[in-house]
Amino acid sequence: MSSSPAWLVAITLALCACGPGAPPAHGPTRLEPISAAPGFSAPDETGKARTLAEFRGRPVVLYFYPKDGTPGCTREACAFRDEWQRIAATGAQVLGVSLDSVESHAAFKQQHALPFPLLSDTDGKLLEAYGVTRNAKGYASRTTFVIDAEGIIRRIFPEVDPAVHVKEVLAVLDAMRQQGLDRAHPAR
Question: Is residue 16 flagged as an active site residue?
Answer without folding.
Answer: no
